[in-house]
Amino acid sequence: MSIKIMADSACDLPLKFFTDHDVTMFPLKVHVKDEEFEDLKTIDPMTVYDSIRNGEIPKTSQVSPATFESHFTEMAKKNESGIYIAFSSELSGTYSTAAMISDQIKEQYPDFDLTIIDTKCASLGCGLVVMEAAKLAKNGATKDEILKDVLFRSQHMEHLFSVDDLDHLAKGGRVSKASAFVGGLLNIKPLLNVEEGKLVPIEKIRGKKKLLRRIIEVMKERGESLHSQMIGISHADDEETALEMKKMIEEEFSPTEVYISNIGAVVGSHTGPGTIAIFFLNSLSE
Q1: Beta carbons of 194 and 259 less than 8 angstroms apart
Q2: Comparing C-alpha atoms, which of 101, 96, 284, 91 is closest to residue 172?
Q3: In terms of C-beta distances under 8 Å and separation of at least 24 residues, what long-range contacts does 137-143 make, across chains too?
Q4: What confidence score (pLDDT) does residue 268 get?
Q5: How far apart are CA 189 and CA 203, in angstroms?
């Protein structure tokens, strides 16, 4: 039996990926100027970045319970087996809602075979987990084999990122206000990572060039066998920095691939434009 792979839009993979690899995508919602949009489907990230630059504060909300109920019920009726690879529960209520709806459906369909994984990952960190799961499913891997890989990658995915303005994260409650050190006037760049699914500032660095060099240093400290893995970069309307980062990574580590994606409208609503993020594994074996 083929395994159905599902993910939400906050994994920041392009819509084309989902259609090309037969992965189901659940869109989170973005609210701009009292209008509600579906991430990836009815709003472009640039709309969000432009609204932020104009002083607006976009709001986001999780996948609707009705969306999960409709999809999961259809799967249960068809006796389909699936894995939903969810965005960190520390950053969105989407995982909890999906788990609740799944439990409700299993009361009516006790044999419903759905496993929901809280990756504790964000943006393309989650996306890289989804990409490998989709590849395994396409190649006929068993559900247990896919789950083992998903859990391993989720536990070992490193996130390093910097935002232009920590205020966006603080306003959305994504980092504590005490952590939202503001350094724009001094050209201070915050370097953050994800710990147990939460966004945690590591250090402050003066200037972009020093920031990028520091990211390479931290990758050396934390990464393992970077030459034999795919490294991810996501950015919020800053392709120039993403390409600069890609070149530095290729020169330093010669990875199998450097995959670049745009930060989507939902994640971008919280990070703001100018965000750059790097994702890699700190271990390749148990």
Answers
A1: no
A2: 91
A3: 137/2, 137/3, 137/4, 137/5, 138/21, 138/22, 140/2, 141/3, 142/3, 143/3, 143/81, 143/83, 143/113, 143/115
A4: 94
A5: 9
Is the pLDDT at 140 greater than 60? The verdict is yes
Q: Select from 92, 101, 38 the least CA-distant residue to 66.
A: 101
Model confidence at 181, in pLDDT bands (50, 70, 90)? low
According to DSSP, the β-strands at 276-281 and 157-162 are antiparallel
What residue has token string 């869109």? 27
pTM over 0.85: yes
The token pair at 228 is: 């034999």
Structure tokens at 12: 């920041």
Rounded to the nearest 10°, the torsion over CA 17, 22, 27, 32 is 40
How much of the chain exceeds pLDDT 70, in percent?
92
Sheet holding 230-235, edge to edge: 198-206, 188-195, 157-162, 276-281, 230-235, 257-262
Nearest to 11 by CA among 270, 261, 286: 261
